[in-house]
Specification:
Blueprint lengths: L1 H17 L3 H12 L4 H8 L8 H36 L16 H15 L3 E2 L5 E3 H4 L19 E3 L2 E3 L5 H9 L4 E10 L11 E11 L4 H16 L5 E8 L2 E10 L16 E10 L1 H7 L7 E8 H9 L12 H4 L3
Parallel strand pairs: 1-5
Antiparallel strand pairs: 2-4, 3-4, 5-6, 6-10, 7-8, 8-9, 9-10
Helix pairs in contact: 1-4, 2-4, 5-10, 7-9
The protein binds 3,4-dihydroxyphenylalanine (DAH).
3,4-dihydroxyphenylalanine (DAH) binds next to strand 9 and strand 10.
Length: 336
C-alpha cells in the first residue's frame, strides 16, 4: 500500500509539470483530487488493510493529500498569472510607441560608396592607427622636421613624436613597408587637425587615401582611374581638371577639380560661380618616399591620391556646414 501511495505521488508530481491551461488543470483536479479521484480511492482502500497498519498508512495518505492540494494550488496560480499576462499583451487599445528606424550616418554612406567604387576597380582596403608617430605621419612622407609643409597640418600631440595622424597618407608607408609591389590600396579613416573650428573646418574629419605602385604605373593611369571614380560618384557627364600643385610625397603633384555637377559647369552657388569643385590631391609617388620604404625607385613607379570625405559629402548633398556631421541632430541626420 505504501508503495502504491509513493507511485501515485510521483505520477501526480510528474503530470502536474505538464499542465498548460485551465482545461487541463480541471481534468487533472478531477482525476486526482476529485470525489472519485485517485487519492480518494486510496482512502477507500484503507478499510482493507490490517488494523495495526492503518495509523501509519493513514498518516502517509493524509500527507499526500495535503501536499497534492498545495502543489495543485501553486500550479493553478501560475497558470492564471500567465493568462493575465497574455491578456495584457493583447490589449489593442494601448497606443503604439513610435519607433525610429535606424539609418547610416551620411558620412558612412559616402565612405561606403567611395569604397565600393575603388574595390570594383581592384583596390584593397587597408587601415592604419589613428595614433601615429612622427616618422610615419611626416618624415617617411618626405616632410622633414622644420619643413614648412608641417604648418598646414598642426595636430594634437600625445607625447613627443606621438600624435593624432593629420592625414591617411601614413598608411601608404605602413603598407609599402609590409609588402613588395604590386600594391593597390585605398585607406579610409579618421584624421585630426588643430584647426580653428568653423563651417569649413573641424578638429577631426575623414579621408580616403589611394596608392598604386607597380612597374610602369603612369600619370595617365592616375587620370583614368580618378575620372572613372568621379563619373560613378558624381554622374557620368562630369569632367576633371588637374591643377599643378605641391605635396612633399608626390612629384609631380596636382589638385583635382570636378566640373560642378549641380550647374554642369555654368556657375552656381555651390561652385561659387567658378564651375569647378576641388575634390582631392594627388601625384606620382616621390622617389624619396620609395627610399624610406626600401622600394627600388628605378624599377617601380606609383601614384597616390587623398580625398576628404566630408568635403565630398558636403558637395554631393549640398551641406554648407561641416559641424552638422558631428552634432547628432536628428533633424539633420533624418534627411539621409
Ligand atoms: N595627405 C594630403 C593632405 O591631407 C592629401 C594628399 C595629397 C594625399 C596628395 C595623397 C596625395 O596621397 O598624393 O592634405
Amino acid at each position: 500500500m505504501i508503495n502504491q501511495i509513493e507511485e501515485v505521488k510521483a505520477k501526480f508530481l510528474e503530470e502536474l509539470q505538464t499542465l498548460k491551461d485551465e482545461k487541463e488543470l480541471e481534468e487533472f483536479r478531477v482525476k486526482y483530487l476529485g470525489r472519485r479521484g485517485i487519492i480518494q480511492s486510496l482512502f477507500d482502500k484503507l478499510k482493507e488493510i490490517p488494523r495495526e497498519e492503518k495509523p501509519t498508512v493513514g498518516k502517509i495518505l493524509n500527507e499526500l493529500k495535503e501536499l497534492a492540494q498545495e502543489k495543485f494550488n501553486e500550479k493553478k496560480k501560475e497558470i492564471e498569472a500567465k493568462k493575465e499576462k497574455v491578456k495584457i499583451s493583447l490589449d489593442l487599445t494601448i497606443p503604439g510607441r513610435f519607433k525610429y528606424t535606424g539609418r547610416k550616418h551620411p558620412l558612412t554612406q559616402t565612405l561606403e560608396e567611395i569604397k565600393k567604387i575603388f574595390v570594383s576597380m581592384g583596390f584593397e582596403v587597408a587601415s592604419g592607427p589613428e595614433i601615429e608617430d612622427d616618422y610615419h605621419n611626416f618624415e617617411a612622407l618626405n616632410i622633414p622636421p622644420e619643413h614648412p609643409a608641417r604648418d598646414m597640418q598642426d595636430t594634437f600631440f600625445i607625447k613627443e613624436n606621438i600624435i593624432l595622424r593629420t592625414h591617411t597618407s601614413p598608411v601608404q608607408i605602413r603598407v609599402m613597408k609590409s609588402k613588395q609591389p604590386p600594391v593597390r590600396i585605398i585607406a579610409p579613416g579618421r584624421v585630426y587637425r588643430n584647426e580653428a573650428i568653423s563651417a569649413r573646418s573641424y578638429c577631426l574629419f575623414h579621408q580616403v587615401e589611394g596608392l598604386y605602385v607597380d612597374e610602369g604605373v603612369s600619370f595617365a593611369e592616375l587620370k583614368g582611374t580618378l575620372l572613372a571614380f568621379a563619373k560613378q560618384m558624381f554622374g557620368s557627364s562630369v569632367k576633371l581638371r588637374f591643377r599643378p600643385s605641391f605635396f612633399p610625397f608626390t612629384e609631380p603633384s596636382a589638385e583635382v577639380d570636378v566640373s560642378c555637377f549641380i550647374c554642369g559647369g555654368k556657375g552656381c552657388k555651390v561652385c561659387k560661380y567658378g564651375g569647378w569643385l576641388e575634390i582631392l590631391g594627388c601625384g606620382m609617388v616621390d622617389p624619396n618616399v620609395f627610399k624610406f620604404v626600401g622600394y627600388d625607385s628605378e624599377r617601380y613607379t606609383g601614384y597616390a591620391f587623398g580625398m576628404g570625405v566630408e568635403r565630398i559629402a558636403m558637395l554631393k548633398y549640398g551641406i554648407d556646414d561641416i559641424r552638422l556631421f558631428y552634432e547628432n541632430d536628428f533633424r539633420f541626420l533624418e534627411q539621409f
